[in-house]
Q: What sequence folds into this?
């Protein structure tokens, strides 16, 4: 059944009752497809008496394949569950219609463990199109002709980041020229793009600290979550209630398969309506808020290294176009360092904060990006910030086009004190 995820879609129950189920494809957390989030307006961004001269951009890799753990889960847990769903419908006439059951019949997993987290074809397209739109908006900062002195490309030592960078250059130039682009050597220990991976203090006090996951655990045991698990099970026609781990796996695979196939909704999405998807979305947001966001000062203090890199490029004579390809953890910590999307109160597991600004589906979907553009104006240097290709106003600025001096004054202390060795040292 072909479902267009931008609009309401219909599912017909066997009881002949047709109901409208709201779109869930925009509420799939960090696996939300970027094609539902990007800014389609790509005309040149102009300001009177100003000229775009430099750009510095951090890009999360494009849509990828699942982890080895999730691929194994698909091969065992979901494979068995598929057969259970089909069996229950044969004997009890469950609520899924014939087309949905046909989708389950056809579903299989042929992913290779060796290709875990690899960039997908959709991820390649995301990068090409992102590059094309970005160049259209800032044609002076991003020249059409490649020059090793004016462009800087850097990626982490992962296939998905490396390939994202490669396809991004295809969008900027063309396939032939992109083969001659010089990339900064990727290192296993990368203290700029994956600083947190090698921060011993953060690893111990945050990532491996059970308190970090306390609120998520509380929400996972809540009445709302229990009702969600019951609802998902009933929607699939099961005579038992699925575990939280199984429903989370379904939710993740729903996101992956919907992301990497255009005009397609994974059959594992059939267990959710928008309300239930939003419950699972909040469950995931609780993890990222406390692990990658505002939960601990140490988490976002580390991101000073990225701000330092930004100001070095904008205040120096090096490359005019810098593109850094990294990961969800990198981007979320930088957004937090910039004081963006901060909830009025910390996210907790005792109730669901529906109006929160911190929503991974919006701020950290596949191919998420954050760009700073330096404008040389008659009255000085200014910086324009874009997130998901949309202009945003930084909290410390009065206007969207913010004086470079204002940003420097605001961040100079954190940059001056940005000794990662000291910040990450275990006492």
A:
């Amino acid at each position: 059944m072909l479902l267009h995820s931008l609009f309401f879609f219909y599912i017909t129950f066997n009881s002949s009752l047709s109901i409208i189920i709201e779109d869930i494809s925009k509420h799939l957390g960090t696996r939300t497809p970027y094609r539902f989030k990007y800014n389609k307006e790509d005309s040149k961004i102009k300001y009177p008496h100003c000229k775009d001269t430099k750009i510095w951009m951090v890009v999360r890799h494009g849509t990828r394949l699942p982890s080895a753990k999730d691929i194994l889960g698909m091969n065992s847990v979901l494979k068995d569950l598929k057969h259970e769903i089909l069996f229950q419908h044969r004997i009890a006439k469950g609520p899924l219609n014939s087309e949905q059951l046909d989708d389950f019949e056809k579903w299989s997993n042929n992913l290779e463990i060796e290709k875990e987290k690899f960039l997908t074809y959709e991820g390649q397209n995301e990068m090409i199109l992102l590059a094309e739109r970005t160049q259209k908006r800032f044609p002076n900062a991003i020249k059409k002709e490649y020059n090793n002195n004016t462009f800087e490309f850097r990626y982490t030592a992962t296939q998905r980041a490396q390939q994202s960078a490669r396809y991004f250059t295809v969008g900027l130039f063309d396939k032939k020229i992109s083969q001659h682009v010089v990339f900064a050597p990727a290192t296993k220990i990368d203290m700029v793009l994956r600083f947190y991976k090698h921060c011993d203090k953060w690893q111990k006090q945050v990532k491996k600290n059970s308190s970090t996951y306390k609120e998520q655990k509380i929400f996972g045991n809540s009445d709302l979550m229990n009702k969600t698990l019951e609802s998902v099970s009933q929607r699939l026609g099961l005579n038992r209630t699925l575990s939280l781990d199984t429903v989370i796996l379904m939710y993740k695979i729903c996101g992956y398969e919907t992301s990497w196939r255009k005009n397609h909704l994974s059959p594992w999405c059939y267990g959710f309506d928008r309300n239930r998807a939003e419950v699972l979305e909040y469950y995931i947001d609780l993890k990222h808020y406390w692990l990658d966001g505002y939960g601990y000062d140490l988490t976002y203090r580390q991101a000073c290294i990225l701000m330092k890199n930004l100001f070095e490029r904008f205040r120096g004579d090096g490359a005019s176009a810098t593109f850094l390809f990294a990961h969800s953890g990198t981007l979320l910590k930088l957004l937090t360092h910039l004081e963006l999307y901060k909830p009025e109160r910390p996210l907790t597991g005792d109730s669901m904060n529906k109006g929160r600004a911190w929503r991974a589906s919006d701020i950290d979907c596949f191919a998420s990006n954050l760009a700073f553009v330096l404008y040389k104006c008659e009255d000085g240097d200014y910086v324009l910030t874009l997130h998901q290709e949309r202009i945003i106003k930084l909290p410390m600025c009065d206007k969207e086009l913010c004086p470079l001096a204002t940003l420097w004054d605001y961040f100079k202390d954190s940059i001056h004190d940005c000794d990662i060795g000291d910040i990450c040292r275990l006492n």
About this structure: The longest strand covers residues 50-60. Strands lie at 9-12, 18-21, 50-60, 151-155, 321-326, 369-377, 380-387, 390-392, 401-403. The CA atoms of residues 270 and 327 lie 29 Å apart.
